[in-house]
Amino acid sequence: MSEPVLLTISGSLREGSFNRMLCRVAAEAFGPAEVIDGDLDLPLYNGDLEDAEGIPAKVQTLADQIARADAIVISAPEYNKGISGVLKNALDWVSRTEGNAFAGKPTVVVSAAAGRTGGETAQFMTMACLLQLQAQIISGPGVLVAGASNEFSEDGALTNARYMSTLEARMATLREAIKP
Ligand SMILES: Cc1cc2nc3c(=O)[nH]c(=O)nc-3n(C[C@H](O)[C@H](O)[C@H](O)COP(=O)(O)O)c2cc1C
Fold first, then answer.
1. Which of 66, 145, 155, 150 is nearest to 110 (CA)?
2. How many domains does the structure of the chain reveal?
3. pTM of the model
4. The domain spanning residue 129 has which CATH number?
5. Which domain holds residue 159?
6. pLDDT tens, 36-89?
């Protein structure tokens, strides 16, 4: 069997984003896979833009990547106790594309944030949106990286062994959920 396709989605566009780092660590823990990194640098959803120009090419690319993925990891930053605008905007755009790319897709949501709860609220808000999109949310002990600036090494490794073992367990469950 060929390697599964794993799509990673960071809800932060920032170059040095801890959520981007967490996506990379998750992909390594997932094991052999074709890893695709979704680009969320999209125009703001605007119904007038959609009416005038249709679905933007970058949105369609993202929707196609979701449709092609065997498994998805989303890392959600927390902004003001909620989902980042970047991530919500991407989910809103994808929901406007043909078909339902997320339907039935095994998906794990993780988060990294500065605060002590590790982005728990944003993580739950993301899962609430994904329920609406009919993703197959793979639940399990939460990967909530709190005080994220202290938890990654300079080369992006997750240094906390407890976070790492929880992440590895979630990735193993995600891999097992891939449809034959
Ligand atoms: C507008 C804004 C709001 C934030 N609100 C929260 C918050 O509610 N909870 C929290 O833990 N961190 C909050 N933070 C800090 C982020 O968790 C931190 O910047 C984190 O590194 C963002 O993720 P990234 O590293 O992937 O970009 C906020 C940051 C910004 C810029």
1. 145
2. 1
3. 0.98
4. 3.40.50.360
5. 5-176
6. 999 999 999 999 999 999 999 999 999 999 999 999 999 999 999 999 999 999
How far is the centre of ligand 1, averaged over its atoms, from the C-alpha of 114 (Å)? 6
Q: What residues contact 131, with CB distance under 8 A and at least 6 apart?
A: 137
Ligand 1: does its nearest atom lie under 6 Å from the Cβ of 152? no
Angle between helices 18-30 and 161-176 in degrees, nearest 10 = 60
- Determine contact, residues 42/13, Cβ cutoff 8 Å: no
User: Would you call 5 exposed, middle or buried from its count of C-beta atoms within 10 A (0-12, 13-18, 19+)?
Assistant: middle
Cβ–ligand 1 distance for 12 under 6 Å, the answer yes
Ligand 1: which of 8, 10, 20, 80 to mutate, judged by most atoms within 8 Å of the beta carbon?
Answer: 80
Q: How far apart are CA 123 and CA 119, in angstroms?
A: 6
Output the CA 20–ligand 1 centroid distance in Å: 13
118 lines ligand 1 (CB under 6 A): no
CA of 77 to the centre of ligand 1 (A): 6
